[in-house]
Design goal:
binds magnesium ion, single chain, alpha+beta, binds inosine-5'-diphosphate
């Protein structure tokens, strides 16, 4: 069994898509281990996205993640990291295929509804950052 970390980003919460998005993961057999609806501090957002610090979209990304409550979730299941990335769909709005969360529901590359850890190591780091109590 593998664990991964996802965020339903502020646009997902604002648009009332928490249920629809979680259903995708649950339908695929992933189990919710922990979940919390929370406001994100600038400090947490910057730590989470540290690898993008030098990117031109970094400030916009931090503003967006801090623009309203998010749902932070730990999921567990067979190949959870890879499966979540497939269900989320490609990062760029024009590349996200129909059938994926982003492909069906997202309208921009910045505001793309969901985050999913990109590796088992990232998942461990992100779970420790967002759920120190676990
Ligand atoms: P991922 O979320 O698919 O792993 P990353 O490359 O890690 O994609 O980028 C993190 C987040 O930064 C994306 O989910 C998206 O919200 C935002 N982002 C990525 N690339 C761009 C871009 O080219 N323009 C604007 N925002 C971007
Ligand atoms: Mg990423």
């Amino acid at each position: 069994m593998e664990r991964t970390f996802i965020i339903i980003k502020p646009d997902g919460v604002r648009r009332g898509l928490i249920g629809a998005i979680l259903q995708k993961y649950e339908n695929k057999g992933l189990k919710i281990i922990a979940a919390k609806l929370m406001d994100v501090s600038k400090e947490l957002a910057q730590k989470h996205y540290y690898e993008h610090t030098s990117k031109p979209f970094f400030n916009e990304l931090i503003e967006y993640i801090c623009s309203g409550p998010v749902l932070a979730v730990v999921l567990e299941g067979n190949k959870a990291v890879t499966i979540v990335r497939l269900l989320n769909g490609a990062t760029k709005v024009e590349d996200a295929l129909p059938g994926t969360i982003r492909g069906d529901l997202a309208t921009s590359t910045t505001e793309n509804l969901v985050h999913g850890s990109d590796s088992v190591d990232s998942a461990k780091r992100e779970i420790a950052l967002w759920f120190p109590e676990l």
